[in-house]
């Protein structure tokens, strides 16, 4: 069974880059429209999902706030092939 990730990003360019990186590592990417169906934060289905945040603005305060809020990790954009095993370790 192939590994899947749910990818949500407000930048279409960043989504495309991240999708290509994951796909080059044989990881199936679910796009934004599919992802948005599942992103109802009140849904208990999401409580067990590991969240890894990627952002171009890696400010200490922002990283701390995300990690305190339950994110498993915070990775600076752009996602690189070397980041994929680390990201997948949370699945």
Give an overview of the whole structure:
The protein has 91 residues and is α/β, with parallel strands linked by helices. It has a single domain (3-88), classed as Rossmann fold (3-Layer(aba) Sandwich). It is 37% helix and 18% strand. It has 4 helices and 4 strands, in the order βαβαβαβα. It has helices at 12-24, 32-38, 60-68, 84-88, and strands spanning 3-6, 27-30, 52-55, 73-76. The chain has a two-stranded parallel ribbon. Strand 3 (52-55), helix 3 and strand 4 form a beta-alpha-beta unit. The protein is globular. The two termini are 13 Å apart. This is Response regulatory domain-containing protein. InterPro entries: ARR-like, CheY-like_superfamily. Keywords: Two-component regulatory system. It comes from Setaria italica.
What structural keywords apply?
91 residues, alpha/beta, Rossmann fold, two-stranded parallel sheet, two-stranded parallel ribbon, 37% helix, Response regulatory domain-containing protein, ARR-like, two-component regulatory system, CheY-like_superfamily
Short note summarizing the structure:
This protein is of the alpha/beta class and 91 residues long. Helices cover 37% and strands 18% of the residues.
């Amino acid at each position: 069974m192939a590994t899947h990730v749910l990818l949500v990003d407000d930048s279409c360019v960043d989504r495309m880059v991240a999708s290509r990186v994951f796909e080059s590592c044989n990881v199936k990417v679910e796009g934004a429209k599919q992802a948005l169906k599942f992103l109802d934060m009140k849904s208990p289905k999401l409580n067990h999902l590991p969240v890894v945040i990627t952002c171009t603005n890696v400010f200490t305060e922002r990283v701390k706030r995300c990690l305190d809020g339950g994110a498993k990790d915070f990775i600076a954009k752009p996602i690189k092939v070397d980041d994929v095993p680390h990201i997948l370790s949370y699945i």
